[in-house]
Amino acid sequence: EAGVAQSPRYKIIEKRQSVAFWCNPISGHATLYWYQQILGQGPKLLIQFQNNGVVDDSQLPKDRFSAERLKGVDSTLKIQPAKLEDSAVYLCASSKDRGPYNEQFFGPGTRLTVL
Amino acid sequence: GDSVTQMEGPVTLSEEAFLTINCTYTATGYPSLFWYVQYPGEGLQLLLKATKADDKGSNKGFEATYRKETTSFHLEKGSVQVSDSAVYFCALSPQGGSEKLVFGKGMKLTVNP
To answer: How far is B88 from chain A (nearest CA, A)?
Structure first.
């Protein structure tokens, strides 16, 4: 079974530029998560989707971050405009369904550097 | 709010040494508790979990017991190997069916032969 795919793996941009990350979850997984992991810290949930609907986006900085999962499969996370403090690894995870009994499977992440 | 505090590293051990990584949490009710591991160059993987008080999670020689009275979920292994070198994260999922994971800061472990 293929794992969670993310691209690109690395991205370097200048502040105020835009960037987009893509995630393809494990086939059949209804729930998709985006986490932000700043160096030296644990991952922090940005947004959670159930199929193509948003379950939790309370920690998403909506003035600059947006995410979509239009067909309930793959997802895109966008930052516009980027700030220096957005430098982090962006992790995508998926699970079969909602609930803590459904294991979250993580992708390899996209490392973003904002100069 | 919900939070996880775990022992800070980095930690370096010799092969076959005993490992303990402390983890305590703050949460209302009975959260589910997890240990995740991140091997060099790889994504986060679930190592073990416990969903109620006094449950013991175990996998690959690692164990952790959910202690409600001390709000702790310490990770232990009796004899570490070089292949256990990784970053270890303690995490919780709040009670009530929420699936959000709240992570600690992680601890880097290096095991030398």
So the answer is: 10
Determine the Cα–Cα distance for residues A103 and B57; give it in Å rounded to an integer. 14
Average model confidence (pLDDT) for chain B? 93
Report the distance separating Cα B43 and Cα B65, nearest Å.
Answer: 25
Average pLDDT of chain A to the nearest whole number:
93
Nearest neighbour of B104 by CB, restricted to A3, A4, A42 = A42
Integer Cα distance of B50 and A24 in angstroms: 28
Residue B97 forms contact with A (CB below 8 Å) = yes
Task: Pick out chain A residues at pLDDT < 70.
Answer: 1, 100
As beta bridge partners, residue B46 has: B36
CA distance B90 to B4: 7
What is the per-residue pLDDT across A6-32, written as a single tens digit (0 to 9) for each?
Answer: 999 999 999 999 999 999 999 999 999
List of residues 6+ apart from A63 with CB closer than 8 A: none
Among B4, B43, B93, select the one facing A109 at the smallest CB separation.
Answer: B43
Specify the DSSP element, H or E, that contains A10.
strand A10-13
- Nearest CA to A32 among A71, A73, A64? A73
